[in-house]
Design goal:
Order of helices and strands of chain B: HHHHHEEEEEHEEHHHHH
Structural class of chain A: alpha+beta
Shape of chain B: globular
InterPro entries (chain A): Acyl-CoA_Oxase/DH_mid-dom, Acyl-CoA_Oxase/DH_mid-dom_sf, AcylCo_DH-like_C, AcylCo_DH/oxidase_C, AcylCoA_DH/ox_N, AcylCoA_DH/ox_N_sf, AcylCoA_DH/oxidase_NM_dom_sf, Mycobact_Acyl-CoA_DH
Strand order of the largest sheet of chain A: 1-4-5-8
Cofactor (chain A): FAD
CATH architecture of the largest domain in chain B: Orthogonal Bundle
CATH topology of the largest domain in chain A: Butyryl-CoA Dehydrogenase, subunit A, domain 3
Largest sheet of chain A: 4 strands, mixed
CATH superfamily of the largest domain in chain B: Acyl-CoA dehydrogenase/oxidase, N-terminal domain
Protein name (chain A): Acyl-CoA dehydrogenase
Distance between the termini of chain A: 40 Å
Organism (chain A): Streptomyces vinaceus
Oligomer: heterodimer
Bound molecules: flavin-adenine dinucleotide
Distance between the termini of chain B: 10 Å
CATH class of the largest domain in chain B: Mainly Alpha
Radius of gyration of chain A: 21 Å
GO cellular component, one term (chain A): plasma membrane
Largest sheet of chain B: 3 strands, antiparallel
Order of helices and strands of chain A: HHHHHEEEEEEEEHHHHHH
Radius of gyration of chain B: 19 Å
Strand content of chain B: 5-15%
Shape of chain A: globular
Strand order of the largest sheet of chain B: 2-5-4
Number of helices of chain B: 11
Number of strands of chain B: 7
Helix content of chain A: 40-55%
CATH architecture of the largest domain in chain A: Up-down Bundle
CATH topology of the largest domain in chain B: Butyryl-Coa Dehydrogenase, subunit A, domain 1
Number of domains of chain A: 3
Structural class of chain B: mainly alpha
Largest interface: A-B, 68 and 64 residues
């Protein structure tokens, strides 16, 4: 149990802090949430700055275009970025946090060379085409079909809730390459493909979220041709690759946000002191408790990172434990914010209310809390599968 | 930074678990219940000989010379085994009260905030107090934690100086209990059948168990981190989360056991009652929340709040 940093890590932190301090004031103003092209440009621009400064793909393997830094350095990077209020990954979320790592772990040398550098430079944005209207929690029930025709797959079907689809260049797409049969039950016969979003036959129809924005979309696929060479992993073995993607998504993709939550909590405490609500002991204690919870979640992150560092880098099912605790704590945070703000929280000014609305997705996206509890119970605790 | 346990820490934990399984297994636990919570002085001495109380004394003073993280691991195991007695107070007294380090003295503390004191009837000393006060025995909710009421709790009694370490080690006991009740619930859920299948196959039961693990793991990590940093706010957070994990896990474990859970026979109630006692010791939830709120407010003056992580950076 060691939470101290080496001289090298301290040095890394100091240089990063200095760079952030210098770079953040130069950033252009953040575009409005509805301006998708603007948001993409903003997020990509930030990624480009990181790339030029040597901070992109920090903990990715060197042969995947990364810097081969230790997971601890990556944590320091997340911590300092969030502390300084640097832009969030935004449109780069899928590429940087789970499609990229999946390709780095499962792709061929050619695939790594083709797809990873543009993700790191911010040149290409990815989205995730996993969910379908009839396959959400029961992801393996997906029906989008890919039929082989020469060197291509011809794909027909539809995806839903695809975040960033409007501005993405690539989609990590799950397709059925075998009809379900005795020999190929639903978990077999799935393949993981990289699909260009500008391929003929791809139609994106934005969906409006409860926050009023168009954060995600429906994606219709009508005889879309994707080269067989774009398949990551073996044909029909995509479910295994998907598990790698999901373990990155649940295990590491949210960790930086814990620091952001602590910062947000600080802002909330400041707001409560300014409007007198801090004098209410019930509310004050509630904020104190959240401060303790997010502190513990950051420690849990450090624990998980230490464990995965020792076991080769792919985070384990422990990510589900983290996601369960984090997603609920985050919703608590915004409920507490509404209590601090009172009726003021009904006016859609400022970020508190929009963030509160967004936080409602945390217990649904990337696998609902119920599904995470199934995973924890069956795969960690070893309880029997059943109804 | 490598937060994982070192090999030595793993060995220590395994060794203590083995020692307690041999010396304080289920039969011994039930025997102490039958004895009305009377302390087994022989066991106390054996714990002393094993270094339980002298863990953190330097070697030249007869101790083991390890730190708070190791003590937290040892206390986690004690919590798991439901080991009774004023373990924390006696551990804190090692080096100042004669016999505490060796386990020949039993030392309690004014750690309950009010006029109740645990194990006073058998205590040789009270931590930080000049003498043993007189007290009236009162029936206790926890059959393994006898209580006395003292006439006048001594003003500013010395326990306060030990509050953070006391809270941390108590939190470690709570985390151990919380982890143990997950195991008990999972085992029962795998064995007990209803409707033609193990109850653990029912999602309602599964989800109770999963949530228990989440609480226990978050609490355990918080305790380990607080043991490493010894930061008072982090200790407060660890105590808060560990109290909650121990109490709520014991309740959920009881629920998973159904009617069996409501019996004297099942050990679940012993975990729950002890968790209630510990939740009142050294730092209550309200006190911990106030301490954390104060820390949060103090951070506002110092810049963006990232908490103790910054101190070690
Ligand atoms: C903001 C947001 C962004 C998203 N982005 C993407 C994206 O980019 N790409 C993508 O592929 N998907 C994305 N999703 C989809 C997300 O992964 C799914 O919404 C999620 O997996 C749940 O599936 P569902 O919506 O079909 O709900 P359902 O599966 O229909 O679930 C409905 C309810 O039933 C419960 N339930 C279902 N099955 C079980 C069970 N076995 N046991 C207990 N309860 C059960 C669920 O917990 C839930 O409460 C996003 C979702 C949101 C909200």
């Amino acid at each position: 149990m060691d939470l101290t940093y080496t001289d090298e890590e301290r040095d890394f932190r100091a240089r990063l802090r200095e760079w952030l301090g210098k770079t953040l004031p130069e950033l252009p103003a953040r575009p409005s949430p509805d301006d998708w092209p603007g948001r993409r440009a903003y997020d990509a621009g930030w990624q480009r700055r990181l790339y030029d400064a040597g901070y992109a793909g920090l903990h990715w393997p060197v042969d995947a275009g990364g810097r081969g830094a230790t997971p601890t350095q990556h944590l320091i990077f997340l911590e300092e970025s969030e502390r300084a209020g640097a832009p969030y990954v935004g449109a780069n979320f899928v590429g940087l946090l789970h499609a990229g790592p999946t390709i780095a772990a499962e792709g061929t040398a050619e695939q790594r060379a083709r797809w990873l550098p543009p993700v790191l430079r911010g040149d290409e944005v990815w989205c995730q085409g996993f969910s379908e209207p009839g396959a959400g929690s029961d992801l393996a029930a997906l029906r989008t079909r890919a039929v082989r025709d020469g060197d291509d797959y011809v794909i027909t079907g539809s995806k839903i809730w695809t975040s960033h689809a409007e501005v993405a260049d690539w989609c990590e797409l799950l397709v059925r390459t075998r009809p379900v049969s005795e020999a190929f039950p639903k978990h077999r016969g799935i393949s993981w493909l990289a699909m260009p979003m500008d391929a003929p036959g791809v139609t994106v129809r934005p969906l409006r979220t409860l926050a009023g924005s168009t954060e995600f979309a429906e994606v219709f696929l009508d005889e879309v041709r994707v080269p067989v060479a774009n398949r990551v992993g073996a044909e029909d073995d995509g479910w295994r690759v998907t598990m790698v993607t999901l373990s990155f998504e649940r295990g590491t993709a949210f960790v930086g946000e814990v620091v952001a939550c602590r910062r947000t909590l600080g802002e909330l405490a400041a707001a409560a002191r300014a409007n007198g609500r801090w004098d209410d002991p019930v509310l004050r204690r509630r904020l104190g408790r959240l401060y303790g919870e997010f502190g513990a979640l950051w420690r849990l992150t450090q624990w998980n990172v230490s464990e995965s560092e020792a076991s080769g880098g792919v985070p384990g099912v422990g990510g589900s434990v983290f996601k369960l605790a984090y997603s609920h704590a985050r919703q608590e945070l915004y409920d507490a914010a509404a209590e601090v703000l009172g009726a003021q929280s009904l006016a859609l000014e400022g970020e508190w209310t929009l963030d509160r609305l967004s936080s409602l997705s945390y217990t649904i996206a990337a696998g609902t809390s119920q599904i995470q509890r199934n995973i924890v119970a069956e795969r960690i605790l070893g309880l029997p599968k059943g109804r | 930074m490598d937060f994982r346990l070192t090999d030595e820490q793993r060995d220590l934990r395994a060794g203590v678990r083995e020692l307690l399984a041999g010396r304080y297994g289920r039969e011994a636990l039930r025997a102490s219940v039958d004895a009305g919570g009377a302390l087994d002085r022989g066991l106390w001495r054996e714990l002393g000989e094993a270094g339980f109380f002298s863990l953190r004394l330097p070697q030249e003073r007869g101790g083991v010379g390890v730190g708070l993280p190791e003590a937290a691991l040892v206390f986690e195991e004690a919590g798991r085994a439901l080991l009774p007695g004023p373990l924390v107070a006696t551990h804190l007294a090692a080096g100042s009260v004669p016999g505490a380090a060796e386990g020949t003295a039993v030392v309690t503390a004014f750690d309950l905030g009010g006029s109740l004191v645990t194990h006073l009837g058998e205590a040789d000393a009270v931590l930080g107090a000049p003498s043993l006060p007189a007290g009236e025995p009162v029936p206790s909710a926890d059959p393994l934690t006898p209580l006395h009421r003292v006439a006048r709790p001594p003003a500013g009694a010395g326990a306060r100086a030990y509050r953070d370490e006391g809270a941390l080690l108590t939190a470690a006991l709570q985390a151990g209990s919380a982890l143990r009740t997950v195991e008990l619930a999972v085992r029962y859920a795998g064995e007990r059948e209803q409707f033609g299948q193990p109850i653990g196959a029912f999602q309602a039961v599964k989800h109770l168990c999963a949530q228990m693990l989440v609480r226990a793991e978050v609490a355990r990590t918080a305790v380990y981190a607080a043991a490493v940093t010894a930061d008072p706010a982090e200790v407060a957070g660890a105590k808060l989360l560990a109290d909650e994990a121990a109490v709520r896990n014991a309740r959920d474990c009881l629920q998973v056991h159904g009617g069996m859970g409501f019996t004297w026979e099942a050990d679940v109630h012993l975990h729950l009652k002890r968790a209630w006692v510990r939740a009142e010791q050294w730092r209550t939830a309200g006190e911990a929340e106030e301490a954390l709120a104060a820390e949060l407010a103090a951070g506002l003056a110092a810049g963006p709040a990232v908490g103790p992580a910054a101190a070690s950076g």
